[in-house]
Amino acid sequence: MFYFFYKTKYFRTKFPAEKKWLSAKSSIALGIFVTSFGFNTIINPLSTVAIVVGIIMIVVGAGSIWAGVKAYRFYLPFAREEAEKYANQ
Known about the structure:
elongated; 89% helix; mainly alpha
């Protein structure tokens, strides 16, 4: 749900730094979803394949969370500066 919320905000904004900041937030939300789905697959295993798929989903989701947090921290000052610049006009 949060992924779609942030992607909607991404398409509605006009500012480039805010777009990248919102994209990072949506990446974090999607990573949390994929990771939790992977944990759910491991908790209720139906087969060995399900366990392997769950582990792969956890790794991919954790990578998405990590990259999203890194991008979020990088673009946050630029988004703040951009918002202040346009708020003063």
